[in-house]
């Protein structure tokens, strides 16, 4: 057998070792890909040479491939031939793309589209699916080759939508893997021809210009497989008593599956096995132990029985096999098509447990699947039971069957109302008498998105007695992205519809407005922008949205020093608040002003490798694929067309609509101008002292500290970038140059938890003290922060420092922080 391996490029450093090969005793460089988190460096082609050893994951020891030849391929892959140390077996290895693929029957690596992935056991449904895909593509491509073809045929592979959905960012690697599989088959048949991928094209781009073929079958995979399910998923009986359960076999292929039945594949446990098909009422039908044909896309139910002749404790999965003569046996998935079985000398509790996800009443969207809605972060389901065995003391617990980020709690429920009898907990213990039918509610919760992989991502509810399984059931679990809930009458965002104060509409605040003429705020545009701002679909793994780092209750800043990205990585700077973002005359965005406009800025986090990780073309495709966006784009732009430019325009409108103008400071301005008796009456004595320290106040004899020179206007916006002397040098972060940074508006600064571009301060008191005594004589220090050649020292009293902090809290706008116009439209 010829094995074909494909490896991965990654922007990390691989582990290169020098070791003695067991085959020849010579010292050779080793590229160790079997180590945890190992990856192939980008310059692998220059670091691998004939005689090198590549160690691949294959069991505990790994598989050592000794390189014979190495050559570059047209798509940037590196083709390697070699031999397996110890056996001399010839192999091919292709490096490039975003993951490993290996030959059918071996352990396979399935990329998840981000350069990560998982190894698939040979018997898993996913591995069988990949093997079937390979079989079909190879057979169809060979059939498309001209019989007299010779030499190398250049191939353009057309990657259809379904192929890309299946393999994501690893589609190119998978296409190359399939081409290698075609060549392996051609070589094994002795045909004097091979194929070479020279281009990858999307669906609908026309036929290949290459003579012969266009790489057949990449978008027409219809695997001829059978799958199976078993209920209940456990039985615990006494020796000599039959344990019965139901099974369903589904033919997922395009043709009839023949002679389909059940069998036991192992000698243990000891006993007798029998099965029989059932009718629509689940009554036995036909002849016992007789297989039947199942039509294409059809299903057949069976009842089966196992009567043990000896004890089998503590128990294990009954070695069931679901077979058809023209299909591979159904892949076994624990909790889906297995039966945990135990046989005891005496009667024991035998809990028949059935999970109900409530799809018919809208509790979840699919039967047998629990939905964790992305904003609710929890998903419930119910479990009904019947003890058909003896009485016993049973511990009931619930937990995920795989390593997925879910916590699960359970409670016993009132059979009449369904209400919990006690607070949900990780487990509970109760006495269950013979014939009893207690019911339970289960609650799964998690913040990290869970992909829909029903064979592996499941919750198991377990009923045990002294550690022995007496009952179990499982359900699939996934994260479900919700649709936005928008008001029937649109929220108002346009300036003409919003009651902005006069000092926002005129004078220096209005002069600082960076809204471009071609992107004025409209109600429909800002509504679309709001949905995009909160939509987690704009991150690679549906984990975060723009709002994950810009939280309304925090003035659209973050509660961490640095923000957490889609894979848990941290950003390099603190998240700035977005309040009054439209009022900044320079019009540039980010702390270092690297975005020329807000329209430029709003798109940058989406493809960022730490923040959201989704290429813009994929973001556009995701948005276009959601039906609810069609109406939103039509309302905003006149038609349903989705482009990154339109997304930027809408999100910029939404961010510019975030104006704060109903703080206690604004309410004082409503009473009278700054310095008037009516204005002063709205503030406390301490707050008014802080205002006089912050900025010159008409009629006041208190010397202002000139804070308002940088935090200008009655909207408290930044006038420019400034080096404020945070550090003695600019080595840590040069910002916009020479240690200068842009500052957000001070509106709602009192609800933020971290301050400055690096979040170094955690209280306003620390910020005030920095300006009082901590300014460093850094190169480029703003002249307004100097006292002659030295950095400023304000020498404030404790009373004055407290007054400044009190004034800053008057800029908090609770209406803004809770305004439904700016809230999450996906929350319900």
CATH fold topology of the domain at 664-815:
Cytochrome Bc1 Complex, Chain D, domain 2
Question: How many beta-strand runs?
Answer: 35
Count of DSSP helices?
18
Strand order of the largest sheet: 2-3-4-5-6-7-1-8
Look at the helices and sheets and give the structural class: alpha+beta
Which range does the strand content fall in?
A: 25-35%
CATH homologous superfamily descriptor of the domain at 664-815: Cytochrome c-like domain
Name of the top-level CATH class of the domain at 664-815: Mainly Alpha
Shape: globular
The biggest sheet amounts to:
8 strands, mixed
End-to-end separation in angstroms reads 56 Å
CATH architecture of the domain at 664-815: Orthogonal Bundle
Q: Unreliable stretches, pLDDT < 50, 5 or more residues?
A: 1-27, 36-42, 96-107, 111-117, 203-223
Could you report the average pLDDT, rounded to the nearest whole number?
83
Write down the Rg. Answer: 33 Å
Helix share of residues? Answer: 10-25%
């Amino acid at each position: 057998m010829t094995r074909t391996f494909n490896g991965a490029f990654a922007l990390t450093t691989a582990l290169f070792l020098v070791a003695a090969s067991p085959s020849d005793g010579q010292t050779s460089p080793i590229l160790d890909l079997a180590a945890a988190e190992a990856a192939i460096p980008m310059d692998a082609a220059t670091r691998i040479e004939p005689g090198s050893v590549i160690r691949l994951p294959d069991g505990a020891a790994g598989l050592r491939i000794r390189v014979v030849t190495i050559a570059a391929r047209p798509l940037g892959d590196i083709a390697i031939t070699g031999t397996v140390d110890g056996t001399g077996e010839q192999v091919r290895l292709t490096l490039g793309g975003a993951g490993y693929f290996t030959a059918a029957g071996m352990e396979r690596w399935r990329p998840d589209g981000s350069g990560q992935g998982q190894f698939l056991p040979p018997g898993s449904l996913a591995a069988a699916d990949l093997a079937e895909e390979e079989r079909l593509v190879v057979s169809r491509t060979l059939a498309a080759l001209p019989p007299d073809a010779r030499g190398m045929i250049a191939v353009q592979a057309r990657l259809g939508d379904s192929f890309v959905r299946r393999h994501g960012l690893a589609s190119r690697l998978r296409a190359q893997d399939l081409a290698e599989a075609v060549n392996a088959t051609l070589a094994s048949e002795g045909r004097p021809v091979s194929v070479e991928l020279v281009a990858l094209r999307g669906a609908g781009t026309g036929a290949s210009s290459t003579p012969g073929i266009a790489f057949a079958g990449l978008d027409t995979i219809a695997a001829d497989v059978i799958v199976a399910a078993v209920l209940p998923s456990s039985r615990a009986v006494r020796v000599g008593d039959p344990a019965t359960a139901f099974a369903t076999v589904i033919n997922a292929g395009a043709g009839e599956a023949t002679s389909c039945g059940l069998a036991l594949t192992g000698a243990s446990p000891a006993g007798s096995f029998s099965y029989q098909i059932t009718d629509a009422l689940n009554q036995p039908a036909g002849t016992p132990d007789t297989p039947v044909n199942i039509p294409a896309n059809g299903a057949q139910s069976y009842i089966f029985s196992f009567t043990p002749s000896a004890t089998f404790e503590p128990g294990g999965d009954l070695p069931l096999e679901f077979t058809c003569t023209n299909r591979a046996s159904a892949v076994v998935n624990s909790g889906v098509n297995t039966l945990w079985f135990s046989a005891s000398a005496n009667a024991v509790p035998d809990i028949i447990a059935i999970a109900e996800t409530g799809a018919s009443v809208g509790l979840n969207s699919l039967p047998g699947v629990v939905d964790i809605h992305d904003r609710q972060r929890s998903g419930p389901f119910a479990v009904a039971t019947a003890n058909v065995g003896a009485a016993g003391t049973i511990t009931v617990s619930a937990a995920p069957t795989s390593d997925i980020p879910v916590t699960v709690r359970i409670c016993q429920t009132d059979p009449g109302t369904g209400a919990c009898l006690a607070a949900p907990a990780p487990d509970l213990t109760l006495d269950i008498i013979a014939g009893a039918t207690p019911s339970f509610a289960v609650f799964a919760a998690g913040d990290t998105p869970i992909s829909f992989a029903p064979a592996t991502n499941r919750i198991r509810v377990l009923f045990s007695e002294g550690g022995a399984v007496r009952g179990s059931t499982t359900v699939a679990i996934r994260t479900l992205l919700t649709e936005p809930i928008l008001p029937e009458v649109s929220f108002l965002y346009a300036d003409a519809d919003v009651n902005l104060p006069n000092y926002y509409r005129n004078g220096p605040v209005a002069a600082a407005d960076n809204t471009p003429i071609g992107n004025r705020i409209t109600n429909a545009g800002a509504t679309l922008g709001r949905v995009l701002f909160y939509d987690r679909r704009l991150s690679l793994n549906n984990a975060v949205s723009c709002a994950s780092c810009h939280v309304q209750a925090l003035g659209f800043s973050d509660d961490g020093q640095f923000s957490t990205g889609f894979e848990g990585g941290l950003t390099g700077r603190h998240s700035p608040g977005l309040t009054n973002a439209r009022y900044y005359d320079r019009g540039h965005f980010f702390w270092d002003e690297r975005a020329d406009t807000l329209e430029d800025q709003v798109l940058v986090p989406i493809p960022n490798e730490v923040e959201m990780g989704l290429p813009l073309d994929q973001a556009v495709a995701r948005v276009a694929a959601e039906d609810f966006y069609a109406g939103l784009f039509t309302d905003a732009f006149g038609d349903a067309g989705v482009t990154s430019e339109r997304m930027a325009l809408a999100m910029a409108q939404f961010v510019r609509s975030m104006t704060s103008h109903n703080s206690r400071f604004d309410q004082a301005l409503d009473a009278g101008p700054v310095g008037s008796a009516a204005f002063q009456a709205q503030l406390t004595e301490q707050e008014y002292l802080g205002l006089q320290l912050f900025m010159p106040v008409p009629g006041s004899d208190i010397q202002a500290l000139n804070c308002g020179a940088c935090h200008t206007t009655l909207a408290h916006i930044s006038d420019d970038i400034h080096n404020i002397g945070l550090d003695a040098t600019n080595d840590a972060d040069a910002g916009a140059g020479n240690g200068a940074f842009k500052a957000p508006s001070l509106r709602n600064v009192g609800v933020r938890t971290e301050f400055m571009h690096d979040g170094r301060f955690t209280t306003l008191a620390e910020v005030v003290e920095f300006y009082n005594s901590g300014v460093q004589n850094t190169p480029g220090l703003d002249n307004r922060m100097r006292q002659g050649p030295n950095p400023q020292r304000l020498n404030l009293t404790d009373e004055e420092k407290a007054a400044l902090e009190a004034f800053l809290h008057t800029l908090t706008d609770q209406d803004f922080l809770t305004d439904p116009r700016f809230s999450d439209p996906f929350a319900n």
